[in-house]
Amino acid sequence: MRVITSEPPEGLDVREPVVDPETVSITGLASVVDLVTEVQANVTIEPSGLDVDREVELIPVDAVGNRLTPVDV
């Protein structure tokens, strides 16, 4: 899984993301599931930068980064 973060506001010390769970299951049509190369989590860091400990949508993508549907993560 890869976490994609926005450019953090200036002056914030941003650490490496902690991913939990580290693995996920992908279900759906075999022809689509077979194309999934990774799951991305887009994370926005707010200017306050106080807490980004939250659940985010997981996005299944193919080798060139295109979102794949219909797939359940």
Structure description:
With 73 residues, the chain is mainly β. The protein contains one helix and five strands, in the order E-E-H-E-E-E. The chain has one helix at residues 30-33, and strands spanning 2-5, 27-28, 38-43, 58-61, 71-72. Strands 1-3-4 form a three-stranded mixed β-sheet, with no helix packed on it. The chain has a two-stranded antiparallel sheet with strand order 2-5. The longest helix has 4 residues, at 30-33. The N and C termini lie close together (11 Å).
Question: Can you tag this structure with a few keywords?
Answer:
73 residues, mainly beta, two-stranded antiparallel sheet, 5 strands, elongated
Chain-wise SSE layout:
Blueprint: E1 2-5, E2 27-28, H1 30-33, E3 38-43, E4 58-61, E5 71-72
Parallel strand pairs: 1-3
Antiparallel strand pairs: 2-5, 3-4
Shape: elongated
| Share of residues in strands | 15-25%
Order of helices and strands: EEHEEE
Q: Oligomeric state of the chains? A: single chain
The count of DSSP E runs of length 2 or more, i.e. the number of strands, is: 5
Tell me roughly what share of residues is in helical segments. Answer: under 10%
Largest sheet: 3 strands, mixed
Return the structural class.
mainly beta
Radius of gyration: 14 Å
Determine the mean pLDDT.
81
Adjacency order of strands in the biggest sheet: 1-3-4
Distinct helical segment count = 1
Q: Segments where pLDDT lies below 50 for 5+ residues?
A: none
- Span between N and C termini? 11 Å
